[in-house]
Write a structure and sequence with these properties.
The complex is a heterodimer of chains A (484) and B (71). Chain A has 484 residues and is α/β, with parallel strands linked by helices. Chain A is built from 19 helices and 16 strands. Chain A has helices spanning 5-16, 31-38, 83-99, 118-134, 151-157, 175-182, 188-192, 194-201, 211-226, 256-262, 308-323, 341-345, 348-361, 376-381, 405-412, 414-418, 425-440, 442-448, 461-471, and strands at residues 45-46, 55-62, 65-72, 103-109, 140-149, 161-164, 169-171, 206-207, 270-272, 280-287, 290-297, 328-334, 366-375, 391-394, 399-401, 454-455. Chain B has no helices and eight strands. A four-stranded antiparallel β-sheet of chain B has the order 1-8-6-3, with no helix packed on it. In chain B, strands 5-4-2-7 form a four-stranded antiparallel β-sheet, with no helix packed on it. Classes of the chains: A alpha/beta (484), B mainly beta (71).
Amino acid sequence: MTHAPNEAAAAVSRAGAGKAKVDRATDPRRPRLRLEAFFDAGSVELISPEDDSGMLAAVGTVGGVRVTAFASDATIMGGAMGIAGCRVVVDAYERALADETPIVGLWHSGGARLPEGVGSLHAVGEIFAIQTRASGVIPQISIVLGAAAGGAAYGPALTDLVILAPEGRIFVTGPDVVRSVTGEAVDALRLGGPEPHGRRSGVVHYIADSEADALATGGVMCRLLADQGELDVAAVTDVDLERSFPESHKRAYDVHPVITDLLDDGAETVEVHAKWAPNMVTQLGRLGGRTVGVVANNPMKLGGCLDSPSAEKAARFVRMCDAFGVPLIVLVDVPGYLPGVGQEWDGVVRRGAKLLHAFAEAVVPRVTLVTRKTYGGAYIAMNSRSLGATKVFAWPDAHVAVMGSVAAIRILHRRRLAEVAPDEVAAVEEELAAEHDRLSGGLPRAVEIGVVDEVIEPSSSRSKLAQAIAEAPQRRGRHNNIPL
Amino acid sequence: MSHRIASDLVANVIGISVAVGDRVEVGAEIALLESMKMEIPVLTEEAGTVIEVKVHLGDVVQEGDVLAIVE
């Protein structure tokens, strides 16, 4: 990605200092203009006064769906949040909770208002408290359009989905403080812009390529979560889901085209956390007209292994979907957990446990499809029968095992293989692996003991998945969505 | 601007798909790695000309090792 770092960073810091000579009536940062750009034309009804509180709230529709929203007023003190402005946000939350609408925050704020002292900190904390109370009850979406620092960084962070516009920056302490305390020279873009939050931190779920894209994507998320639709099984047509897989089972591939084939063609969809932990794909879309969440291993990245960030990413997505009653489809092609000292020290045990917990507690319909292979601990984590999957399907050539058969016989027959002449090792290994497959049973055994419900064809998978979701009780988890 | 294409993980280099001087488009395969029982193609995220290939067939690369540089 290429940027002009210094210019953008300077613009952000200037915005906080009250850039001179911008006409307030036409300033594009005015909250009313931003709210009008977000809502359907003519649908905006303000629910707070247009004053100097630093926040403005409104109700309206977004693609026909009722939404409550609030916006920072970046034209006053860089959008800083005082007691009155925080009251506007809390009142908007009360309204959204009463009306059961999604709530969207358009953020552009340097944080708490300094002149109001600890009173403003208390007020910002009250926003956090009501955000937590609303967690898992109504969808909360944050669209960060400019700098969101300090308290204004944690506001978005407590919500379900965070969108970052190109001029958006999120950090707890800005570049000046970082420089004075640690001596690290960094600009706002590199500290908290789209690149670090898109790839490294996982703070942001969607990196927008313009402010308009940020607002439009917020609307897509509102519709997918608040207008989920009914699953019409008869409307689900089959395609060969295997058509974008390579011939060789060993060859890695990008799972995105498979998800595109799986979801309704032409329907709204959004991938969340696309660049962070890309070895796992999490995407909202529709199947048979109904909103579904897809969780898929992506063999193109890290071979599709599970690791700390990907487990955490999927766990949070699964809990969000469960909290809002969105059924899950889990596409499994996983060689195992990524081995390594770094992984263990990063807490892959603690962070991987989140995914086990998330799936095991989920009550939405959640259907698993094993396309190629599922091994070991990763087998369990990817919505296995043992964790309570609604249905587990597998394609005819799928491998379901503790590990690949060659790896298994190298452990089971270590001594015998050590005695084999070097030029015969490959042949002996192949023979032992075939024998191991016969004895351990592979897919037929998995079906026999009921951990795989049915072997299905790639060409009937869409309708099978849709049917399994439609037949399951449509339930919704009773829990919040802590930002894991 | 030069773009360094690195390995995401520990792997064996089982294929090198470009040579110095080659013109590559976004998404072109730079190398083929073997790890976790998988053959994993490494693609470039930037278009340009390959100015350096830093690995050989059979090398073992570590996470973060640069495979090639595209300018």
